User: Fold these one by one.
Assistant:
Number 1:
Amino acid sequence: MKKNDAFQGYDPDGDFCEIFGPADGKQTQNPLAQRLSKYNIRTLNQRNSAAERELHNLGITFTVYSDSGAIDRILPFDPIPRQISQADWKVLEKGCRQRVMALNAFLADVYGKQKIFKDKIIPKALVTGNKNFRKEMVGVKLPHSTYTHISGVDLIRDEHGEFLVLEDNCRSPSGVSYVIENRHLMMRSFPDLMEGVKVMPVSDYGKRLKATLTETTPARYQNPQVVLLTPGVFNSAYFEHVFLAREMGVPLVEGRDLVVDEEDRVFMKTISGLERVHMIYRRIDDAFLDPEVFRKDSMLGAPGLMRSLKAGKVAIANAVGAGVADDKAVYAYMPRIIKYYLDEDPVLNNVETWICREKDALAYVLEHLEDLVVKPVGESGGYGIVIGPMATKAELAAVRRELKKNPSNYIAQPMIRLSVSPTLTKAGLRPRHVDLRPFVLTGEEPWVLPGGLTRVAMREGSLVVNSSQGGGSKDTWVMR
C-alpha cells in the first residue's frame, strides 16, 4: 500500500485491516485512505482535540464508578471512520435480523410452552436456573411476542475477514447515542472528509425507535403515550437516556414519577395532573423495576408495574426476563436455537465456545487455559474476562480455582485477533483493534440501524474495546 505522511509506520502486523483488507499482499488503495492523505497528523490531532472538547461541552459522557477521581468522562472519539461495504452490510443486516428473530422466538417459548426444553435442544436447568430468568413472566402474553425490542449484536472480524458474533445484548444495550452523535461530530468537524461520500444515514433512529415502541403497546390503545424510565442522573448511561427521550420526543421519567392505580393503570405525574402511560422503555434492571415483586428496597421503579403488565394495560421494553437470552452459555446454543425456530442455518457464525458446565469442555479448558479467553456467563462490559495468552501466572491460577469451584459460571473461547482500523495517535495513524455493535429494533418486523457502534481499543495491543475498560468509538460508514 502506498504510505502517505499519516500512514508512515502503519503496520497491521498480520491482522485484517478495515481499510486495506487482509495482510496477504493483496491490499488495495482505498478512497478513504486517499482522502486521508490530504491531511497531516498535526491537522488531524488539532481537529480531533476540538471534537473531543465539543463532546465534553455537550455533556456526551459516561460514568466510571470505579474511578473515584472522575465521575463523568467523555467516550474517547477517534475521527478515522470505519467503513463497511454494501456487500458486507447486506450479510450483517440479514444475520442480525435472523438472530434477533430467533431470540424473540426463544424468549416467547421459554416463557410460554417451553417446547425447546421438551425437545431437548437446550438444557432446561441452564435457562430456568439463570439469574435473569423471571418466573413471574411465565404465561404473560406480549404484543407481537416481542421480548427484546432493542437488541445489540456484538460482532468481531477475524484475521481472515469473517464476521463472527461475540455476544447478544437483550436487556438494555447502550451506545446508540454515540452512533448518532459520532456522525454529527464528523459532519461538523470533518465536512471535507465526508463531502461527496455516499454513506447510509443514522439520524432517523429516534423516529424508528418511537415507531417500534408504539407498535408493541397493547393494541386497543390509540396514540399511546411512551415514556423512558431512567434510574436518574447518576447512572452511567444517563446522557443516553436524555438523548433518546429527546430524539423520540417522549417524557423522561424516574420511578417516583409513576403511579399505578387500583385498576392496574400506569400514570405519570405532570404539572397538569396524572397522565396515562401505555409503554415504558425502561433503562433499569429487572430487580429494581417493581418493589411489589422484586427487590423490596428499590426506589428506582414503581410499585404495581408488573400488575399492570400482566393485566395488559402497559407494555415494557425490553421485556422483563429478556436478559436470560444474554447469558453467554445460552449464546453457545444459538446455532441450534436458530435452526430450531427458523429452520435455517446461521448467517453469522458464533465464535467457537466451550461451556464449562459440561465435563468434557471443562477438562479441555483447564488443559488449554493459557490459550483461551475465559468469561463469566452473567457479566457484561468486559468485567471478569481473563485473556489466557496475556494473563499472569497468578491470574491463571485464580481462574483455574474458580473454574473448578463453579464451572457453570464460565465459558471459554479461543483468542481471536480482532480486525484493526487506522486510529489517530500522536505518532500518526496506527492499527487498533475494533468490534461492531449493530442495533436491531423489533416491532412487527426487525430493522437494523445501518452501521452501529464501532468500539476501538485505544491502547496499543489491547483487545478489550469496552468503554468501561478504556475503549473509545468511531463513526461507522455503511457505504451506499
Note: The chain has two domains: 1-218+314-351+425-480, 353-414.
Number 2:
Amino acid sequence: MAHLLLIHGAAHGAWCWRAVLPALETLGHTAEAIDLPGHGDDTADIEAVTLHEFGQRIAEHLTRPTILVGHSMGGYSITQAAEIAPDNISRLVYLCAYTPWPDLSLAQMRMQADEQPLVPLIRLSPTRRSFTFDLSGGPSGGIGNFYHDCPEDAVAFARANLCPESTEASNTALDLTERSQSLPRSYIVCNEDRAIPPEFQRRMAARFDARDVHALDSSHSPFFSMPDRLAALLDRIAQQDA
C-alpha cells in the first residue's frame, strides 16, 4: 500500500486532516499530515516565512516513496516541494487546489477565475505581510465559503484553529521545471466549492490527463464534509500506481 503526506492550505494546519488520517489507515495505507511553517503548532513568524520554506518543510518529510496531497494553497506548496526534492514523490494530488502556471503567483492565479469569492474575505495585517479570512456572518458569510456542508463541530474546531497566512508566500511565482512537471499528478475537483470556483478548478485540471481528474460533490473542505469518501478516492488514486 501507499504512503501519503497531506498538506494543508492557507490559514489551516495539520489539524484539518484529523478524520482523513485514520480513514486512510483503515484502508491499509500509512499517512501523515504536517504543519507548514507558521501554521498549527509551528511557532515560526508567519510574516517572515516563504513559499520556499513551505516546500523545504515538506521535502524534509519525503524519506520514502510518497503520494503528496495538497489542498487549496497547498497546491503551490507541494509543487515547490517537488522542485526541491522530486525523487521520493510518486504522485502529486491537487485537492481543489491552485496549480501553478508559469510566471503566476497564487494571488495572480486566483485572479484568473471569472468569480472572486475569496477576495472580499481577505483582511491584511497592518504590515501587509500576512492576512486572515473574515469568517463573520455565519453560514451565509465567510464560513459558508469554506464549510457550508461540514458538521457544526468541525466548523467550530476550524474556527478555533485558523491562523494568519503569509502574504509573501501567496505572492511568489514558481520557476516550473521538469522536476515537478514530469511527475504523475491528479486533480480532485470539489463540485460544491464556494472558495475556488469549480469551473476554475476544471480549467486548471484541463492541463492534466483526463484519466487523472476526479470529482467530489463537496465544499472546499472535504476533509470535514466527507473524510471517508475522500480517503476512498485517494485509495483509488494510490492503487493506480501500485
Note: The first strand starts at residue 3 and ends at 7.
Number 3:
Amino acid sequence: MAKAFDEMTALGDGCRSGYELVQAWLAATPAETLRQRQQEAELLFRRIGITFAVYGDAEGEERLIPFDIVPRVLTRPEWQRLSKGLEQRVNALNMFLKDIYGKGEVLKAGVVPEDLVYRNPYFRPEMQGMQLPHDIYVMIAGIDIVRVDADTFYVLEDNARTPSGVSYMLENREVMMRLFPDLCARHRIAPVENYADELLATLKSVAPDSAPGEPTVAVLTPGAFNSAYYEHSFLADKLGVELVEGRDLFVRENIVYMRTTEGPKRLDVIYRRVDDDFIDPLAFRPDSVLGVPGLLSAYRAGNVTLANAVGTGCADDKAVYSYMPEIVRFYTGAEPILSNVPTWRCREPDALKYVLEHLPELVVKEVDGSGGYGMLVGPKADSATIENFRQKLIRDPSKFIAQPTLALSTVPTFVGEGVAPRHVDLRPYVLTGADGVKTVPGGLTRVALKEGSLVVNSSQGGGTKDTWVVDVPITDAAIMQFQQQQQQQSRHRP
C-alpha cells in the first residue's frame, strides 16, 4: 500500500495551506498541556452524556466516542469543490429513487440491472407509484468521503436511510470553542451551529399539502435502548420538537396524531430514526412494537411526510453504489464531480475471479453491511480469515463487493505517545428540501485511533474530530503573532 497523504504536511516536512496555525499551536504546546486538554474534553463529554451502545457487546455498557482535540482543516476552495460534488450526487440519488419507484427508466435503459433493485432487501414495492412532496426521498444524507492526495476525494459510501453522527459534529465544535478559544478565534471557521435551523426548515418545507397551517414536526425514536438514542434526544431538543416513540402516536382516518396532555395533535412530518421493517406492524414486521399501526396508510394517503422516505435503503446498498457514476450521468447528463472508489462487483464472474485471486490485497464488504462489520481488510487479515472470506465469496458472491486497500489520508492526532498521524474519513451532511440542496460546511471527521488501522467506525475503536472549513491564506504576521502568544502562555503555565 502506498504511503498515506498527510493533510497537514503533504508528503514532506512543510505545511499545507490552512494548517499553519494548527502546526504552530502543536509545536508550541507541551504534550502535558495537550493531555490535560484531552482529559478536560472527555470530562465535558461525560457531563453532557454523549454515549453510544454497541450491539452484541457482552457488557452492554454505554461508551464515550473518543474525541481528538486536534482539528481537521479543509480550506474553503477544497470545501466548495466537495460541496458541488455532494449536491450533484444527492440530486442523482433522489432522481434514482423517484425513477425506480415510478417509471423505472434507468432499469429499462440497462444502466442498473433490474434484479439488483427488485431483489434488493431494502426495495419496498409499497412505495411504487407514490407521489412525494417535491419528489424528495432523501432529505438528510450522510455521504462518506475519503481522501488519497491533495486533489482526490472518493465517495466511500452513501447513507440514505438514517445517517447518524450529526450530534457529534455539533458537540465537537462546542467543545473545541470552549477548550481552545484563542485557536478558534484566530481562524475564520465556517459555522455548523445553524444546522438545526436548516434541518427544521428542510423538514417543514416537505410537509404534505394537506398540512393545516404551520407543519408539526417530531423525531421518532425506537427508544432509550437504541445505540443512537442520545442523538435522537439531542436533535429533538435542538429542533425544538417532540421526541416520540411509536406508542406516543396513533392513526385515525389516515391522519397521524400525537398524544399530548392537551389531547391528540396532528403530526405532519416525522423525522424517523426507526428502520423500515419496524415502522408499521400492519405493513411490515407484525411483531414490531416500535412503529405505528397504520402509518404507511397515512403516508400513502399523503397526510404525513416521513424523512427519510420508506425504501431509501435501496440507494445506499453497496452494489447499487458501484453504479453511481452511471446513475449520475444518466440523470444529470454530466460527469460525476466526485468519483467512487474503484469497485469489483463479485456477482460478475470476471470480477469474482479477480477478487479471489487478489484477496490479500483487497477490502471486501457485504453489500448491505454497515458499521465496519462483516468486512475483510486483506492486508491486515491473517490467512485463516482470508480463507474464511474466500468460502463466503464462493458460496454467495452477489452479497459482496471488493475495493482496493486505499492509503487513506492522515491528519495529526493526539494519542498516548503524543501527536501522530492517523487515518480519517469524512461524513458531510446534505439537506434536501423544497428550496434545494444544502451542505453543512465540514461534517463529521472519523479517525482510526489505532496505529495503522483503516477502520474509523466508533464501534470498531474509532473516534471523532472537529472539522474546520477555513478561509485562506493565513498571513505570516498572523502566524508569528500566534506563536508569540503561545510561547508567553507556556512560560506562565505552572
Note: The first strand starts at residue 52 and ends at 53.
